[in-house]
Design goal:
The chain has helices spanning 24-42, 58-66, 120-129, 149-153, 163-178, 210-213, 218-230, 240-252, 258-268; strands spanning 6-11, 14-18, 44-52, 70-76, 97-101, 109-113, 138-139, 145-146, 156-157, 201-209. It is of the alpha+beta class.
Length: 269
């Protein structure tokens, strides 16, 4: 909690942040601020974060960059949770990918997804409540499908897109851990216990200053693309539900599960 991230500009368009085995958020804030400044000079730049921790909602980090005119891609690896396709032992994390693009007259377009069929947090929430999970989300320790959330936590998550999902998880491991010098998923300790060494995972953000790389017409082109999607009945842009829930929370407050609220009260005394 007292770690101070350290930024180094390794090359003109490549930044590296050592999170110091602390929370990811100060390190990512430092990386994003420097990325905006660097992209203004170079048009495209990358920021690598090493010795990091859980980055929360990856989409929010790239969204903040898009609000400042930088189109951004983010890759993050997480502790082992998914097996290579055909295997039963976890090697990859759920490894989120996030993307955000600036818009002229609307909030940024944001895509945020983990490479497991569902985020592991949903399985953890179900286990905490003693609830079953749908079949197809996870496998038990023997590699068999399970609806038991606790057994799922002892096994592996099923990849989105099956073999294609695990191939993408491999790509994220290379980008988020290999390039940043961070721990691979199978080397990282859990985010959610104090056992072992710090997780030491990594994140990589690539940014494009759209005013320099695409010129003044980028916003118009994005509007045209989004309109082509929304013109079809039943189609909504990625992130639309998130924005609606954010507005609702701002107006009406947050609805917190009773068990989670009690756990917070226990922690805070």
């Amino acid at each position: 909690g007292h770690a101070t991230p350290v930024l180094e500009r390794v090359m003109p368009a490549f930044l590296k942040v050592d999170a110091g085995n602390g929370f990811a958020f100060p390190a990512l804030d430092l990386a994003c601020d420097a990325l905006v400044e660097t992209c203004a000079e170079t048009g495209i730049a990358a920021a690598a974060v090493t010795r990091s921790h859980h980055c929360g909602q990856a989409g929010r980090h790239v969204e903040k960059l898009a609000e400042r005119g930088v189109l951004a891609l983010m890759f993050a690896n997480t502790p082992q949770a998914m097996a290579p396709w055909g295997g039963s032992k976890a090697v990859f994390g759920t490894n989120p990918i996030a993307f955000a693009a600036p818009m002229d007259s609307a909030p940024p377009l944001v895509v945020d997804l983990s490479l497991s069929k569902v985020a592991r947090g949903k399985v953890m929430a179900a286990a905490g409540k003693g609830e079953a999970i749908p079949e197809g989300w996870a496998l038990d320790a023997e590699g068999q499908p399970t609806t038991d959330a606790t057994a799922a936590l002892g096994g592996t998550m099923v990849a989105m897109g099956d073999a294609k999902g695990t191939a993408l998880a491999l790509v994220v491991e290379v980008l988020a851990a290999g390039l940043t010098g961070a721990c691979f998923a199978f080397e990282a300790s859990s985010f959610f216990s104090a056992e072992g060494a710090p997780p030491g995972v990594g994140q990589l953000i690539i940014g494009f200053d759209v005013a320099k790389t695409a010129g003044n017409g980028f916003g118009d082109r994005m509007g045209l693309l989004c309109a082509a999607m929304e013109d079809q009945p039943g189609v909504r842009l990625p992130g639309a539900r998130r924005l609606a829930l954010r507005r609702q929370a701002a107006e009406s407050g947050l609805q917190v599960d009773v068990a989670i609220w009690r756990a917070i009260l226990d922690l805070t005394g």
